[in-house]
From TrEMBL:
<dbReference type="GO" id="GO:0005506">
    <property type="term" value="F:iron ion binding"/>
</dbReference>
<dbReference type="InterPro" id="IPR001128">
    <property type="entry name" value="Cyt_P450"/>
</dbReference>
<keyword id="KW-0503">Monooxygenase</keyword>
<feature type="binding site" description="axial binding residue">
    <location>
        <position position="457"/>
    </location>
    <ligand>
        <name>heme</name>
    </ligand>
</feature>
<dbReference type="GO" id="GO:0020037">
    <property type="term" value="F:heme binding"/>
</dbReference>
<protein>
    <recommendedName>
        <fullName>Cytochrome P450</fullName>
    </recommendedName>
</protein>
<keyword id="KW-0479">Metal-binding</keyword>
<dbReference type="InterPro" id="IPR002403">
    <property type="entry name" value="Cyt_P450_E_grp-IV"/>
</dbReference>
<dbReference type="InterPro" id="IPR036396">
    <property type="entry name" value="Cyt_P450_sf"/>
</dbReference>
<keyword id="KW-0349">Heme</keyword>
<dbReference type="GO" id="GO:0004497">
    <property type="term" value="F:monooxygenase activity"/>
</dbReference>
<keyword id="KW-0408">Iron</keyword>
<dbReference type="Pfam" id="PF00067">
    <property type="entry name" value="p450"/>
</dbReference>
<dbReference type="InterPro" id="IPR017972">
    <property type="entry name" value="Cyt_P450_CS"/>
</dbReference>
<dbReference type="GO" id="GO:0006629">
    <property type="term" value="P:lipid metabolic process"/>
</dbReference>
<comment type="similarity">
    <text>Belongs to the cytochrome P450 family.</text>
</comment>
<keyword id="KW-0560">Oxidoreductase</keyword>
């Protein structure tokens, strides 16, 4: 009760302040002046941040654009909310590469994503290095990459295209984001467990585990934005969103246990010996590893892989289709690039077009389209690091031990100083060398969608392969039309998902 009383004492004047703050902004004749957070006695910059939480992504971008790519801030004294936010490439290189030992993810990050405790996403140091080496060995092996590619092709051919053909023939509008999330949930489960849950189907079965993963990312975002003592108190009391997260964790744990059992049953039915290693999925390489003998650690690791696979691609694909639906000229270029491959397939009477991963591997403009989407709409729009010892950034800003550092990928992709006057335009050509069909070499300190330095994304090429296969099949076989009147905006989450989905209609293209 004392915690609740303290919270009320703080929140009542805070609510009054936010009301006055919003009112003053509506009366202001200079909206740009209202962008920068005001530092208030006792509360620091927390009220300004909370007042703009509804528009967090654009607010962060405007603050960084107006402050030269870097900003120091803090919350109430003693709340542990000192932070430095940046999208400066020089600082990013310093944080991720030059001095990366001084900027781990940190204990607070691991606490925020406690459902993945011990997984690659949350650990640092020698333990992280050892487990990364193991994971690289798994996903870089030919048996794994070949199976992922084959399942992606078959999933598109046998499930996605027939479902989209039905939507086109009936003129039904649908949520493309939901379809892409379901597709990637099935494909990721197959890569992780060797089991396809079958959530991508016409009857749209309930997908509680996917909803639970969304909850993890939404509550994780809110944990980042409030004093740790507050959300930890809410967790202890099991109230509010912390109670919702508690239920989501139970759903995900149950999904992992049930899916492992289903995989074991499947193996028994096809005659595999229980001690025989079945290659082709991640679980096979972890389930008998002594380092993962603890059931909680194995569960956390598998949830880590599920979130990494489903969330990155499942979040990016709707933004790709959103941008392509508004740029028919770009769609035409992609189809022209696919045309030589398609003409060969038509000659062999293959019907609905599905492109093999090897066939799209060399398609430069399609890759440039993916990169341009990731520039403007990075699925993980914010990175968090912790400062171990006091340091001075290349920009001249001081950071102190214990400070949180936030790197805004969303803001970085919109900075005129980094991308030119057309930085807000969707233009895949910016990724091509002038007068050629070759990709520019854009350093990761400027384009951070696949991370940078020692933590650079291990599954980059697998992700690109999957996106190319899906986008090529959809855009060759269908015209995508946005339904008018919908509001496209990102939700408040660690993922840049669309708050209201992406409602589209399809038209089948003639052969």
């Amino acid at each position: 009760m004392s915690l609740i009383s303290t919270a009320l004492v703080l929140l009542v004047p805070l609510g009054l302040y936010l009301y006055l703050l919003q009112s003053s902004r509506r009366r202001s004749n200079n909206p740009a002046a209202a962008v920068f957070p005001t530092k208030w006695p006792m509360l620091g910059m927390l009220p300004s941040l909370l007042a703009n939480m509804y528009n967090f992504h654009e607010y962060s971008y405007l603050v960084l654009a107006g402050s030269g790519l870097n900003f120091n801030g803090d919350g109430p004294p003693g709340a542990g909310m000192r932070f430095f936010i940046t999208c400066d490439p020089a600082n990013i290189q310093h944080i991720f590469t030059t001095n990366y030992h001084n900027f781990p993810k940190g204990a607070e990050f691991a606490a925020i994503f406690d459902i993945m405790a011990g997984g690659l996403f949350t650990i640092d140091g020698e333990l992280w290095h050892r487990r990364r080496v193991k994971f690289v060995g798994v996903i870089s092996s030919p048996w794994f990459t070949d199976r992922v590619a084959a399942h992606c092709h078959d999933k598109v051919k046998d499930h996605l295209l027939p479902l989209l053909a039905h939507m086109a023939s009936t003129g039904t509008s649908f949520d493309m984001q939901e379809l892409m999330v379901r597709l990637m949930f099935d494909m990721t489960a197959m890569a992780v467990f060797g089991v396809d849950p079958g959530f991508l189907s016409l009857d749209m079965p309930p997908i509680d585990a996917s909803i639970a993963m969304d909850t993890v990312m939404e509550v994780g975002f809110l944990r980042h934005t409030m004093p740790a003592s507050l959300w930890k108190a809410m967790r202890w009391l099991n109230i509010g969103l912390e109670r919702k997260l508690h239920e989501a964790k139970k759903v995900l744990h149950r999904f992992v246990v049930d899916t492992i059992e289903r995989r074991k049953t499947t193996r028994e039915n096809v005659g595999h010996d229980e001690d025989e290693e079945v290659v082709g999925d991640i679980l096979s390489s972890y389930i008998n590893d002594p380092d993962f003998a603890d059931d909680d650690l194995l569960r956390a690791t598998l949830i880590n892989f599920m979130i990494a696979g489903r969330d990155t691609i499942g979040t990016t694909l709707p933004w790709i289709f959103y941008n392509l639906a508004q740029n028919p000229n770009i769609v035409s270029i992609i189809r022209n690039e696919l045309s030589p491959i398609a003409s060969h397939k038509v000659a062999h009477g293959m019907g609905a077009m599905v492109f093999e991963p090897e066939e799209t591997k060399s398609l430069v403009y399609l890759r440039a389209t993916l990169y341009e989407t990731l520039r403007l709409y990075p699925p993980a729009h914010m990175e968090r690091k912790t400062v171990v010892t006091d340091d001075i950034m290349p920009s001249g800003h001081e950071v102190h031990a214990g400070d949180a550092i936030f790197i805004s990928l969303y803001s970085m992709g919109r900075m005129e100083s980094l991308w030119g006057k057309d930085c807000l335009d969707f233009n895949p050509n910016r990724w091509l060398l002038e007068g050629s069909n070759k990709l520019k070499n854009v350093p990761s300190r400027k384009f951070l969608a696949f991370n940078s330095g020692p933590r650079v994304c291990m599954g980059k090429e697998i992700a690109v392969m999957q996106m190319k296969t899906i986008v090529a099949a959809v855009m060759w076989n269908f015209d995508v039309e946005l339904v008018e009147g919908q509001s496209i905006q990102p939700k408040l989450s660690c993922l840049l998902q669309m708050k209201n989905g992406l409602i589209v209609k399809l038209k089948k293209r003639e052969a």
